[in-house]
């Protein structure tokens, strides 16, 4: 299975929802908290094609998008 990576913020309700869905589906994921690791936000923006909001979710090298796209 491809690795799942999710860029989050602890203050973000959509981030909590996305992580809850991934957990319910049994998908392991690596979380990057852009508040505690602000240098990683630039990386997220570049990988996400300019998207600046969290969550941003990747499966392998594929950008899924945010919470709504994950649920779709």
TrEMBL record:
Glutaredoxin domain: residues covered: 4-64
This protein's UniProt keywords: Electron transport, Transport
InterPro entries from the UniProt entry: Glutaredoxin, Glutaredoxin_subgr, Grx-like_ET, GRX_bact, Thioredoxin-like_sf
CDD domains referenced in this protein's UniProt entry, alphabetically: GRX_GRXb_1_3_like
GO molecular function annotation: electron transfer activity
UniProt xrefs under SUPFAM superfamilies: Thioredoxin-like (SSF52833)
One Pfam family, short name: Glutaredoxin
GO biological process entries: cell redox homeostasis
Gene3D superfamilies (alphabetical): Glutaredoxin (3.40.30.10)
NCBIfam families for this protein: GRX_bact (TIGR02181)
Family: Belongs to the glutaredoxin family.
Protein name (Swiss-Prot/TrEMBL): Glutaredoxin domain-containing protein
